[in-house]
Design goal:
With 270 residues, the chain is of the alpha/beta class. The chain has one domain: NAD(P)-binding Rossmann-like Domain (Rossmann fold, 3-Layer(aba) Sandwich), CATH 3.40.50. Helix content is 40%, strand content 16%. Bound molecules: NADP nicotinamide-adenine-dinucleotide phosphate.
Length: 270
């Protein structure tokens, strides 16, 4: 058996670190997990919290909002390995309920949506035959959370990845001009962003024979989610939530491709 290679973005804390921990338990000596982080020192500190290191854990600098940094890591991985078995695009910018949407929308969409686009574009070709490219999205990434007059913007039958990018940029413009209400956008900027991510995954999967799908981890107790929910008693730990995602890597491509999966089941798109 050849050695396994994986990349997880936003891997220094929260769900991303939970994913590294779970995957490391399944990997052996000789396998490699790249931790894609924008703060390498934080990545190195995060590794120290892993009790038993099995795989080779390598911290690499990646700012997912910056395409060049993604291309650089793709080139490194391509030079060193025959392909990549698992890519988890997990990194996400945070938002605060106390900051006006117009002040945070641009960085949020650039990181979470353009970041997803760059990851799909550059890593999809490197995925091995039975490999997986997983985008961490959310159950909010479903059209049922969006005003029906906006559904056509995310029509996966007619739109390309670039069309979705254009829609997300127009959305940023609407929020910055404070006309999101008038256009019918929901108040929480996470919803259009997650719908954009899920739509992109569905479009990319249609055009590929690789296993590309999105997941919702459910509510996870992280510094990102805490400000939005009063009651976190039901929330999973990042390690627990990661288990439901990592177990999907054993499933056949046809069962997953293009789908949004939560706790092993497909969530509806409409
Ligand atoms: N928590 C939940 O309940 C929940 C529910 C549904 C979906 N999700 C999704 O799960 C994913 C992880 O969420 P989380 O709660 O673990 O968030 P988190 O604790 O805020 O972790 C996000 C990670 O992304 C990194 N990141 C941010 N911007 C980046 C950039 N430009 N380039 C590279 N890395 C960057 C952060 O790095 P720094 O440490 O440098 O900031 C951090 O490591 C997100 O996609 C989120 O939308 C979470």
């Amino acid at each position: 058996m050849s050695n396994k290679v994986a990349l997880i973005t936003g891997a220094n804390q929260g769900l991303g670190l939970g994913l590294v921990k779970k995957l490391n338990e399944r990997y052996d000596k000789g396998d490699v997990i790249y931790l894609g982080v924008r703060r390498p020192e934080a990545g190195k500190e995060a590794i120290k919290t892993i009790e038993k290191v099995n795989a080779h854990l390598e911290v690499v600098y990646m700012d997912v909002s910056n395409e060049e940094t993604i291309v650089a890591i793709k080139n490194t991985i391509q030079e060193k390995h025959d392909g990549i078995d698992l890519v988890i695009s997990n990194a996400a910018a945070r938002i605060s309920p106390d900051t006006p949407n117009k002040e945070q929308v641009e960085n949020f969409i650039q990181t979470n949506n353009m970041g997803t686009y760059y990851m799909l574009k550059h890593f999809q070709p490197l995925i091995t035959t039975n490999g997986k490219l997983i985008v961490v999205a959310s159950a909010f990434g479903s059209l049922m959370h969006l005003n029906s007059n906006l559904h056509n913007l995310f029509d996966i039958g007619t739109n390309s990845l670039e069309d979705i990018n254009a829609t997300m940029q127009n959305y940023v413009g609407d929020v910055k001009a404070e006309r999101e209400d008038e256009k019918g956008w929901p108040e929480w900027i996470n919803i259009p962003s997650k719908i954009g991510q899920v739509a992109m995954v569905k479009i990319a999967a249609k055009e590929s024979n690789k296993s590309i799908f999105s997941v919702c981890p459910g509510l996870v107790d992280t510094d990102a989610s805490r400000p939005f929910f009063d009651n976190m008693h039901e929330a999973q730990s990042p390690y627990e939530a990661a288990g439901h995602i990592i177990e999907l890597i054993d499933k056949p491509t046809a069962e997953l491709s293009g789908k949004l999966i939560q706790f092993g089941k497909e969530l509806p798109w409409n």
